[in-house]
Design goal:
Length: 240
């Protein structure tokens, strides 16, 4: 039986590319999403990959969602914590809700998904968890205290959980993407984006599949000795 991988936010953007890359490796994929039914349906029709709707920021929803995936597809071997949102603004204008939503979904989602799956992985003696951080969690970014804090937290979460998983055959790693051409980046005003691209040594935005290849490698058998690491894929923007 093939291994089962859950990709949160797996129906579009970077997550879609990750779902496809892991499918290519032979995994059975469950692509989670938050609420964009149209994109999720189109993704499932196009790829044949099952999609499952729940909010990764909701602890019980993650427990229930993962139980449903396990029942339908089999026990979960791989989790890619990719779901994420931005609620940008300088501190003076950032509401508590903007802070809390980003922490709850981007960082809390990693905790919730690990709680839902880590125990079973430990019992079966094998697992792969990949958390999607960000260059802005490594370097900081103006107008993103919430996002930078959550993404930076993901890198600490990764190193700590890696220590717990190591003796059970579970690796826990992070990928820190730079700016990737997705809907999330399309929301950045063109003038701001132009300045950002000017600072990327390779001179362009990244492509979702360039992140997905890194995730696929970290989820493979060959990456068993890599744990607690962060792989930066950012066109040389921030050398960390
Ligand atoms: P997109 O905005 O294009 O897609 C986000 C995905 O996450 C969607 O599938 C969305 O579901 C899902 N999602 C959002 N909130 C939730 C939630 N509460 N529960 C479940 N799913 C949720 O994002 P990207 O593909 O650009 O980004 C993917 C990840 O990569 C994020 O964590 C982001 O922070 C990170 N990243 C992105 C960079 C970039 O330049 N694009 C750079 C660095 C990091 P739905 O379709 O239903 O809305």
């Amino acid at each position: 039986m093939s291994k089962v991988a859950v990709v949160t936010g797996g129906t579009r953007g970077i997550g879609e590319a990750i779902s496809l890359a892991l499918k290519e490796l032979g995994y059975t994929i469950a692509a989670n999403y938050a609420g964009n039914e149209e994109k999720a349906r189109a993704f499932t029709d196009r790829t044949g990959i099952a999609s499952f709707r729940w909010d990764v920021g909701d602890h019980q929803a993650c427990l229930d969602g993962c139980a449903e995936v396990a029942e339908k597809l089999g026990p979960i071997d791989v989790v890619v914590n990719n779901a994420g949102i931005t609620r940008d603004g300088v501190l003076a204008r950032m509401s508590f809700e903007d802070w809390n939503d980003v922490m709850r979904i981007n960082l809390g989602g990693c905790f919730n998904m690990a709680k839902a799956t880590f125990g079973d992985m430990r019992e079966r003696g094998w697992g792969r968890i990949v958390n999607i951080g960000s260059v802005n969690g490594q370097a900081g970014q103006y107008g993103q205290v919430n996002y930078a804090a959550a993404k930076s937290g993901i890198h600490g979460f990764t190193k700590a959980l890696a220590q717990e998983g190591a003796k059970y055959g579970i690796t826990v790693n992070a990928i820190a993407p730079g700016y990737i051409d997705t809907d999330m980046v399309a929301a950045v005003p063109a003038a701001v984006l132009e300045k950002i691209v000017a600072k990327i040594p390779v001179g362009r935005l990244g492509h979702a599949h360039e992140i997905a290849r890194g995730v696929a490698f970290l989820c493979s058998e060959e990456a068993a000795f890599i744990t607690g690491s962060t792989l930066s894929i950012n066109g040389g923007q921030h050398m960390y």
